[in-house]
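User: Could you check the structure of this?
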Amino acid sequence: MGPGKALSRRFILAAAVLLLFTVLAAGCDSENENTGTKPDEAETRVSILAEEITYENHFQAGIDMDFFWQFDAEGEELHIRLESPGSGWLAVGFEPSTRMQDAEMVIAGFEDDEFLLEEHIGTGPTSHEQIEESYIEKYAGEHEEELTVAEFVLPLTGDTRYELQSGEVYEVIFAYHDEADNFLQRHSQRTSAEVEF
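Assistant: Sure, the predicted structure tokens are below.
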């Protein structure tokens, strides 16, 4: 074999190793950042809070968590539905600056069959705390062994901290716990993605 063929084989081998490394590095993201899909428009749900609301917008996060949303006709409220495959709490957060920092978070779950919801703020990249004021007045949930559903309505006008608008793209955090009802228990699964509302 001549020197040209040996050089060619080394080049092909180096390129293959580099390609394999790139593919492996892209797939080894432990926090599942920026993963998810926006399925076809056939994926809808009727609200358990308001029968006149049908969720026509759906995003499936890379952690098997479903996010549905629907603005009301006047643009004054944003109806949200979360579904997780776990039996513990579930959460969504909007517009973090770094990981959880500054995210406007909503955490919901069940305690002794009572549905609870809290509003939190991201106080650091990996920490959050409940805020003193409550903006969300309408919420409900459903609970099964391998499915937790939370629905709530974000007020978008008046005294509110939520400033989400239709047609805009926002970074959204998704998280849930497989079993725990304690809102301060670290998540079993977490991801974030940019979602066009």
